[in-house]
Amino acid sequence: MSSRDHAAAAAVARVAVAGDGAILGVGLAICAATSWVKYFASSSSLNRIRSAPSPRISDLRALIAASDGECEGEGKLVVVRGQVHLKPTADSNWVNSKNQSALISQGSGERAVIVQQTQTCLYNEWRGIFGWSIDLHALFAKSWREQRSSSLRSVPFILVEGGQWPNSGYVHINLDGSTHPLPLTTVYHQLRPIQPTPYTFFQAMFGNGYPVALLDEEKILAIGKEMTAIGKCGSQNGALELKSCPDLPFFLSDMTKDEIEARLAANGRILFWSGVILGAFSIGLLSFTIFRNWRRWKQWRQRSRSRDRHRVTDAESTAADESGNVSDEGDVPEGQLCVVCLMRRKRSAFVPCGHLVCCVQCAMYVQHSVSPKCPVCRQTTYSSIRIYDS
After folding, report:
1. What sign for the dihedral angle of Cα 99, 101, 103, 104?
2. Residues 8 and 226 sit within 8 Å (Cβ to Cβ)
3. Could you point out which of 167, 203, 305, 321 has its C-alpha 20 to 30 Å from the C-alpha of 245?
4. How far apart (Å, rounded) are the C-alpha atoms in residues 284 and 281?
5. Fold of 334-386
6. How deeply is 58 buried, as exposed, middle or buried, from its count of CB atoms within 10 A (0-12, 13-18, 19+)?
7. CB-CB contact of 128 with 203 (8 Å)
8. What is the pLDDT of residues 192-234, one digit of tens each?
9. Which segments cross the bilayer (predicted)?
10. What single DSSP character describes residue 219?
11. Rounded CA Rg of the chain
12. What is the CB neighbour count within 10 angstroms for residue 274?
């Protein structure tokens, strides 16, 4: 880690503990609330998937027909498992559907229904020959660090029971509007170095890095792969169609229904205990912050009142000295010295005990302390009275 990273981490730590940890406590509370929101969403998804029927694909039509009144317009939530195949056309059958236009992987030559090709530029980061921390190149053009080209091609496909179609039937998979991640398999992965150019020298001089390689990747959803689909199943133009549910975390997956339920249950436990631990820490930290700042405020109020009263007492003492009274300091007999400071004459008696043992200033200090008590008898005092010589 560089010195700049250490400085940034130290600044973040100072901000986090500012105000006796109030900012850190609020941050922990936000994280705890986020964990609880995700936990309830995960629990709701788990309960819905558990209660969803998981029939065979050949039984889907009967299931949908029996529940038309329950799920009219949006379909019924089901969990089905089958093999990926090309969608047959109206004038094709299972035999010649293998000759339909499938996507061919350039890296492996496999036939697929979804092909995703990604190219990413890898950077060698540094501070530049001038040690600048600002990427000047990013001010004028888009940095290569952000250049990531990706293309996704797909053809209509269906899920069928293993090798039994057309006798068992099939269900169409509709990807329109789906934002769920696709269970693609990486079949091609190559790293190609980039030859330096004059523009690369310009980036190295005025930027924070320069490109060194291109990473080419290709992922596919191969024909014949066993998949589990979770979504709303309905009838579209006489054919069964399965659509994704936006509020569920899965649509297509290579895991079985039991494996999906186990993963959601594990994630729910992690989110639950994360919310409990973070919430307990945030409550404790915020309670400590409130209590400590309340005590500081109380002490500040007491000190302010004590200073104000000392000013009044000092003003009264000065006025008394100027009017001709004998000064409390100077050559004072030993028996008349204040028992607290041993510098000034005894002038104040405590109420209700009546002991004349302190000067005016020390009596005020005792009177405005947290627990005012007479220095001699240790009895709680309520006020003090100044005694004047005749």
Report:
1. positive
2. no
3. 167
4. 5
5. Herpes Virus-1 (3.30.40)
6. middle
7. no
8. 887 777 766 666 555 556 677 888 999 999 998 999 999 998 8
9. 270-291
10. E
11. 40
12. 17
Rounded CA separation 222/109 (Å):
10
Nearest to 154 by CA among 243, 222, 210, 211: 222
Which tokens sit at 185? 């398999």
* Of 356, 344, 362, the residue nearest 385 (C-alpha): 356
Cα angle at 188 between 184 and 193, to 5 degrees?
130
**CA distance linking residue 276 with residue 287, whole number of Å:** 16
* pTM (2 d.p.): 0.64
- pLDDT, tens digit (0-9, with 9 covering 90-100), for 297-325: 888 888 777 666 666 655 555 545 544 44
Closest CA to 340 of 360, 354, 324: 360
Give the pairing type, strands 185-193 and 170-174. Answer: unpaired
Q: Are strands 209-222 and 148-154 parallel, antiparallel or unpaired?
A: unpaired
Smallest CA-to-CA distance from 89 within 97, 77, 81 is with: 97
State how far the Cα of 147 lies from the Cα of 73, in Å rounded to an integer: 42
Q: Which residue has the higher pLDDT, 13 or 64?
A: 64
The domain segmentation of the chain, as residue ranges, is: 1-51+257-319, 54-254, 334-386
The backbone torsions φ and ψ at residue 87, rounded to the nearest 5 degrees and listed phi first, read -75, 125
Q: What are phi and psi of 237, to 5 degrees?
A: 55, 40
> Which residue do the tokens 């039937």 mark?
169
The three-class DSSP label of residue 326 is coil
User: Angle formed by the axes of helices 360-367 and 257-322, to 10°?
Assistant: 160
Q: Identify the sign of the CA torsion 154, 159, 162, 168.
A: negative
**95-127: b or e for each residue (b if 16 or more CB lie within 10 Å)?**
eebeeeebbebebeebbbbbbbbeebbebeeee
Which positions ≥6 away from 95 have C-beta within 8 Å? none
Whose tokens are 């990473």? That residue is 215
Taking alpha carbons only, the member of 161, 220, 165 closest to residue 188 is 220
